[in-house]
Write a structure and sequence with these properties.
globular, 17 helices, mainly alpha
């Protein structure tokens, strides 16, 4: 736990450092205006806003009470969130792999262009990321740890309900939890307890929404998106390596997934994934976590268009886990070093595009009538 906490702090520090060189953009300016609203107007706003932002606005406003309203404090919550995500990622990786591989998974996650983007952005994405990852840590404890089941079940219900509340579509993280538990012969007996926990989490999240009159129009922001096609399918696979269709991003995604597929086949041929032990649980978790949420959202969007790749941001840690595990399957240290070097080089090339988005710099005095934009996007 000490190692995970220390490396998580490094991830937070990296995000905070990078946030100092990234310009403000439109959505962050909206966050500033929301935080500055009088309390009655703020309460009315969060009672009308969608599932992506209400909890985030509450947390940012709470943080602003203790700290001055600066660009640094605006992005502090996101930096803390990616740091906490890194902690959970390391704890999961340590159980699955060695401590060295866990550190490598942390390094991959911390340097991913999508991590550097959402860790330096004063918006809600990183909050969903950390809650979904910690719910995955809790389900690992629930199904793999033989003692203190009530404790881990309570933790899982708390984390999963918070995840659903932060973003309704983040409920898709429950799918990989079920897949992994059903796939492993060792954990299959705990599947009823897991499903019961997920039902309780959904009920708790729904109760909070209704009881506090927050997020009444829960799916409002998802309406009106275009029906997805091949481009959106590519975005699901390329998301961890940066938004957009930049050549470096697509090349990095292609090479990374090639390494993951090659390493997976090597592990399967060598018999390193066995259905009668924990290896199959982690194998099923990582693969379904990386792919299932995005593919499920794409499938639903063919009927009711609501696709945006950022809604499956919480799949990014799974890709870091898979990459670390897959590189470990190559026997030659020279091969592992060459793969790592290539990935880091391409990551640096994709880095700038991940930090500066939406057409480049945007400062407060460049945007007039921000208050009107707040009301137009978040409700009356």
């Amino acid at each position: 736990m000490l190692l995970a906490t220390g490396l998580g702090a490094v991830t937070t520090a990296l995000s905070l450092t990078l946030s100092l060189v990234r310009p403000l953009w439109g959505d962050e300016e909206i966050t500033i205006r929301v935080v500055q609203m009088p309390w009655p107007e703020f309460q009315n706003l969060i009672s009308q806003t969608d599932a992506v932002h209400a909890l985030y606005y509450v947390l940012v406003r709470t943080l602003s009470v203790a700290a001055p309203e600066t660009v640094f404090t605006l992005r502090l919550l996101s930096a803390l969130c990616v740091g906490l995500t890194a902690v959970a990622l390391i704890l999961i990786a340590e159980r699955w792999m060695s401590a060295r591989s866990a550190v490598f998974a942390w390094l991959i996650f911390s340097l991913m262009p999508i991590t550097t983007r959402y860790g330096t952005e004063g918006r809600a994405g990183a909050l969903m990321l950390t809650l979904a990852t910690w719910s995955t840590w809790a389900v690992m404890k629930l199904v793999l740890k033989p003692d203190r089941r009530v404790r881990w079940q309570t933790s899982y219900v708390a984390f999963l309900s918070a995840t659903i509340y932060a973003n309704a579509l983040a409920a898709l993280i429950a799918g990989p939890h079920v897949v992994a538990t059903a796939l492993s012969r060792k954990t299959r007996v705990r599947l009823p307890r897991l499903i019961l926990s997920q039902i309780l989490s959904a009920a708790l999240a729904a109760f909070v929404v209704v009881a506090l009159f927050i997020q009444r129009d829960t799916m409002g922001s998802y309406v009106g998106l275009q029906r997805p096609g091949l481009k959106e399918l590519v975005q699901v696979f390329a998301l961890p390596f940066g938004h957009g269709d930049r050549p470096a991003t697509l090349l990095l995604a292609f090479i990374a997934w090639s390494v993951i597929i090659s390493g997976t086949f090597k592990a399967l041929r060598a018999g390193k994934v066995r259905i009668d032990n924990e290896s199959s649980w982690f194998f099923g978790l990582a693969w379904s976590w990386a792919l299932l949420p995005g593919l499920a959202l794409l499938a639903v969007s063919l009927v009711n268009p609501m696709f945006s790749s950022r809604y499956v941001l919480f799949s990014v840690p799974a890709v870091a886990l898979l990459l670390s595990w897959s590189i470990r399957q190559f026997q030659s240290s020279g091969t592992r070093l060459a793969i790592a070097t290539l990935l880091v080089t391409l990551g640096v090339l994709a880095f700038q595009g991940a930090l500066i988005n939406h057409g480049g710099p945007c400062v407060l005095d460049q945007l007039r009538g921000v208050q009107l934009i707040v009301w137009a996007n978040c409700g009356p």
